[in-house]
């Protein structure tokens, strides 16, 4: 299992990427996702899809404290890219505010979201 922790900015955003098994990537996202770090978020998420070529990615959102429309757009773009590459992508453990945001924006119907953890 490899672990790659990265912190975009102190107390702003951190991502920890692990490979619990061959072809599976788990990415834990924590902190605030906003205009200041959506580029870093996008780069790291897409890098995992491109370089590791997994058949399954689980993005753990439990540690997210804030997300703006730019962050939401990154999740949608990643979902589309994963679908195009044949990778199963799921978002797990979103906090209540994020789950509500996904429902209210209609995004919940286009993303695979599991409120209670990965289903790999």
Automatic annotation (TrEMBL):
InterPro entries: Anti-sigma_ant, MlaB-like_STAS, STAS_dom, STAS_dom_sf. One of its GO terms (molecular function) is anti-sigma factor antagonist activity. Residues 23-120 form the STAS domain. Transmembrane segments: none annotated. Gene3D superfamilies: STAS domain (3.30.750.24). It comes from the Bacteria. Belongs to the anti-sigma-factor antagonist family. PANTHER family: ANTI-SIGMA FACTOR ANTAGONIST TM_1081-RELATED, ANTI-SIGMA FACTOR ANTAGONIST TM_1081-RELATED-RELATED. This is Anti-sigma factor antagonist.
